Structures are given as C-alpha cells and as structure tokens.
Amino acid sequence: DFVSKNAENFIREYSSLVSRIIFTGDVFSFPSIEKWRQLRELAGHDVDIIIAPGNHDFLRPDSRDVFLQSEFSLRKYPFIVDIDGASIIIENSIETFWSTSKNTFDLAKLTQQEIVIIARHNPPIIEFSNIVNSKSGMPNNLENIEELIKNFENNKFYIWVIGDSGAFPDMPRIMCLSYKNHKFILNGLGQTNGDSVLIYNNNQIYEFKL
Known about the structure:
This protein is of the alpha/beta class. Helix content is 23%, strand content 26%. It has 6 helices and 10 strands. The chain has a 6-stranded mixed sheet with strand order 3-4-5-6-8-7, with helices on one face. A two-stranded parallel ribbon has the order 1-2. The chain has a two-stranded antiparallel ribbon with strand order 9-10.
C-alpha cells in the first residue's frame, strides 16, 4: 500500500536527523500521485528527497505519468548533487535501459571531488545480472566491467549504489564488490530480517540495520 514498512519506520523516526534521502528505485509496488504526496508528508518538508527511478516507478506508462506529476521529477536526469567530500550523480537507469549514459560520464569528469557516488536502480554491468531482483528491461548488449570503467578517470574513486537487490529472503541484504577504483554496493529492502539502509556521514558510508 505504501513504501516498505521498514523504510517507513526509519523515515518516521530519523528524518529529523538527516538532510537528504535518496531512493534507488521501486519506491512503491503500485505508484499513485497520492503515495508520492504521502512520502513527502512522511519525511517532512525540510528533507531533500531524491528518486533514482526503478521499473515500478517509471517503466509502465501509467506509473511514469504519475511520477512525472510528482515533485520528484523536476530535475533532468542524470543530475549531480554535491555533498560533504563527494559528488552524487543520480541516474534514471530505466530511461537508459540499464546502460550508463554519456552525460553521467561527463558529469563524473567535471566534478572536482575525488569521490563520486552514482545512485541508480539497475546494475550498469552484465556481471551483476544474476544477483538483482528482476531483469526487466535488461538489454542484450549490457557492458561488462572493463567496458564500463574505461569511461572514467583513474584519479577518482567511484561508488555505485544499486537498488534493485535484496527483495527476497534468499538474496543477500547487502553486497559490496570492488574492482580497481570502483566499488559496487547492491542494497535493497525486502521487508525481511537484515534489511538495512546506507548512511553517508563524514566521508564514510555506513550500514544501518532496520
């Protein structure tokens, strides 16, 4: 009926302590404009809520229309948010059919920050295709890790936060994998034991178990 109960309880209890909440897709199973409004009321108006859309939010035409009517669609994807010690690039991986857009590569090069966080719903590489919730919209020619990283500079550290994970009890609640100067964190809520969210504070990312 709404967001995950674990997510709702976290926001209700801690939204006064955070400045920004980023959802990496599939916020609702069945979106409606009222649910998007209810999310704003839950978090309050002092919290910056950012959505990196998932297939439930954006793939179906009716869900996309509802999202585009909400306040959360006002920024053009991909866009960048600067925070203490890092830049966050917010992607719409449904629009790009899982691939990473040239605009994302350009934003990553333009930022002066040494840490670049890329928040998206779908994994950007074929190696993760079997450890995500769904292959909905996945192309046949998704890049591999070597093809992806050649588009990024070597003097920065990239953290990919991927939300299409952890929906089912047999899947890991959180997974962190590294390759060269890229770290991939797969994290999603399945309303099961071990659900957790990521918290960024003082240049560190923490796992907060719900």
